Amino acid sequence: MTMLEPGKWYAIAADHDLPHNHIYRTALGGHELAVWRSSDGGVHVWQNRCPHRGVRFSLGEVVADELRCQYHAWRFATSGACTFIPAQPDMKVPGTIRAVVWPVALSGGMVWTGIDPAGSPPALPTGAIVRAIPVSQPASVIAQALADTPLAGLTLIVQPQDQESAIVRGIAGDGDLARADRMLTALRRRIEQTA
Fold first, then answer.
1. Is the pTM of this model over 0.85?
2. DSSP assignment of 107-152, as one string?
3. What are the C-alpha distances in Å from 42 to residues 45, 64, 78, 154?
4. Tens-level pLDDT at each residue, the chain (195 residues)
5. Which end of the chain, C or N, has fewer beta carbons within 10 A?
């Protein structure tokens, strides 16, 4: 079961969260995801489970244009196809061995994904990307708090992690990250205290 709206794009990371050779771990609507950048700069979003034994890809490593699982060192191409099994180096890997690959788009300095997202991600204003703020409340509670008390100068996006928590991401239109951080930290305190 998913809490995600099919056809909708969700921001799950900032572009700067993905330095070279790093696997970023996040969750979206109860789905654990591994986000990584290949050597050509392409961004990839995968279910965070190796199809072999279910170990998290985020524990592995990026090797050029492949993701290598930490457990048995199976390697997977950007398409999700398994390319190499070290225990059977001469075997042609069956095409059925694949990581679960999610759609991905980059827009407004954010990495976006979703379940069969339609069109393009929402356009965001220019500004500085604020740090992600985790909030221990459902996304619906956060969205209502933001509707009741908009934060001036900030464009905010709510990433539902699971049924009980979310991450607030956004853009500070004036570039004042310290002010944005204070506002978001106060918002988190207020939401979590009133629950």
1. yes
2. ETTEEEE-SS--S-PPP--SSEEEEEEEESS-HHHHHHHHHHS--T
3. 10, 11, 9, 28
4. 467 889 999 999 999 999 988 999 999 999 999 999 999 999 999 999 998 887 899 999 999 899 999 889 999 999 999 998 998 889 899 989 999 999 999 999 999 999 999 999 999 999 999 999 999 999 999 999 999 888 899 999 999 999 999 999 989 999 999 999 999 999 999 999 886
5. N
Q: Let me know: does 25 contact 134? Beta carbons within 8 Å.
A: no
CB 3 within 8 A of CB 160: yes
Q: Report the CATH superfamily, name and number, of domain 10-113.
A: Rieske [2Fe-2S] iron-sulphur domain (2.102.10.10)
**Rounded distance between C-alpha atoms, residue 17 and residue 24, angstroms:** 7
Based on the number of CB atoms within 10 Å of its own CB, is 7 exposed (0-12), middle (13-18) or buried (19 or more)? exposed
